[in-house]
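task queued by scheduler; priority normal; single chain, no ligands, no partner chains; default sampling; output format set to structure tokens
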Amino acid sequence: MPNGRLLLVVNPNASRASQSLGAAVAALVADGFAVDIRQCGGRDDVRALITSEGASADAIVIGGGDGTVSGALAGLIEVGRPVGILPLGTANDLARTLGIPVDPVEAAAVIAGGYLRKIDVGRVNDIDFLNVASIGLAVEITDRLDPDLKRRLGPLSYAAAALSTLGSAEHFAASIACGDNRTEVSAYQITIGNGVHYGGGVKVSTGAAIDDGILDIFAIETASIPELVAMAPAFFEGRHGERDDVRVFRSTEAVIETAAPMPVSTDGEITTETPARFSVARHALSVFAPR
């Protein structure tokens, strides 16, 4: 799609925006694109920007981290234009899942390559997400993430936040309904995966895919925090589901209920709460990706 018009929506607060955006834009211009750069605010502002300006663009490029892309989803789906990713955030798990280089200049070359991959979009209540939604420990970690620490430490900031959170972590009771099957669990965390990676490289499972139309769900029921910490290597390899103290579910839809409302995070941002109704829209987004 050389010589096309790109609407580039940038999160100026993304951890690598100030140091990497200029070179990526220069690469796109050198490849013949006309680039219309706009800064984005909150979710409502991003949706309004994309729906008002995106229809006249050949493609929409999001410059930011996973939260920026996730926040733009409603507008991107509504407009229906091809989507490019310039990974300027801390974890960049969506880029990792799609094989997009984390170097923004190399990511710009992927956009210029023009190959489109159709991917799924998860939904919880009225919120769209791409990587994962979480209830429990991961939400507490998200809440403790310090923006300055994210800029200085990058993905290691997630480990620092986790260490400060583990001491107060507790089990919570929940029910997970997938179709007619309802299961009661007592867990530290429940994760609902639409994609493959989250939390700076943790894997949802060995078989997870972002284009299979399936939600991969797991509930961590380990007996103690030391056991949970010992599971760390398995999380990064996606093998945690092999353990007896991890419940695993695969479904196109699910409903998760807790005794009292609990916050739910989507792609690293707290966006809704339980009761949470999950579904997946198959191949709802076309994204520039490596072949």
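post-processing summary
- DSSP finds ten helices and 18 strands in the chain.
- The chain has a mean pLDDT of 90.
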